[in-house]
C-alpha cells in the first residue's frame, strides 16, 4: 500500500484531532450537517450526546438544539439509525445506504435469525405469521408518518403478543413481538428513530419508515465507509478499524486495499491513512480546550487510546461496560472530566495536573461557560454514568 513509511507520533495525531474533529476554534463548523459530514457518525445511544457533540463543534453553539432538530426531523439531512457494532448512531443521510450495506446487512441477518429462533423456542407463532405482522406494521407506520411502539400496536394488535425470551438464561425476560421486531427492522434499515416524546435529552422515540436508499454492493460500501472514516480519524491501526466497524479483519484489509490506503508507522505499530493524507498535518493555530459529552465520537474513536488518554485516568472516566463519560480536553489530550449539577452549573475537574497550566484552566473555564450558556435550563445526565461524573454531579462538588 505504498513504499515509504512515515512515522506519525502522538503529538501529530493530537494536532490532527484539533483540526479533523472540528474541536479547535478555527476548525469549528457552521451547521450540524457539517459536523456530521466531517465525523461520519455521532453516537446516538444517549440522545443528549448527539446535541452536545454537535454543540462542542459549532462556531456559534446558541442554535444547537433548534438546528439539530431541523436536521434530524425537519430537513432529514441527518438520520438516527443502527450502524457499526449494532449501535445507534446519527449519520448524514447521504451515507445511510453505505452504512446499511457495509455494516447493517450482516448484523440484520443475525438479529432476524435470533428473533425467529427465540420465538420458536418459546412456542410463539412462526415466520409466516411474523412476516404478515411486519408488513402490516410497516403499512400502518407509513400511514401514521411517525408512531411510538404503543401507538403502532393499536393499529396492528399482533405486535402486543408476548413470548419468553432467553428462557433459562440470566437475562430471561418477557418481550412483546413489537419490541423485538422494531429492533430488527431498525437494523435492517426499514425503520428509523423519529422525534422523541420529550425534549432533546429524551430516550423515548417515535418510529418512522426509513428513507428510501439504493442497495449497494457490500464490499464497495465498506471501502466507501472506510475512506470517510480514515479521512476524519486517520491514522488508525487494523485493530482500531476492526473495533470501530465491527467487521472481520479480512473485510478491513480488503477495504484498505480497495481505497489504496497508505501505511504509516505509529507507536502502536502499523497504521493507515488515505492515499492523499501521508504528509504531515499542520495543527491548530492556537491551543484549544473542549468539553465533550459521554460517548463522544472523538473520545470513542479508536480502540488504542494511550496517545490521547493516559491509562491511569480510565477507571474514573469509563463505566464498567467501557462507555466513556464526559471528558475535558486540552490540545488533543483528555485531561479531566466534567458534569452538570442539579442546579445547572457545569463543573469540571482536572485529572492530569502535569498536562495543565494556567492557560489551560482559563480556556477550560471559558468552554464550561460556553456550554452552560447554550444548554440553559436543560439538565443533562449521561445514560451511562462514570465514577467521576457521579461524584462531580453531587450537590457539594465543584470543578
UniProtKB/TrEMBL annotation:
The keyword DNA-binding applies. It comes from the Bacteria. GO terms for molecular function: DNA binding. Keywords: DNA-binding. Pfam families: AlkZ-like. This is Winged helix DNA-binding domain-containing protein. It comes from Streptomyces vulcanius.
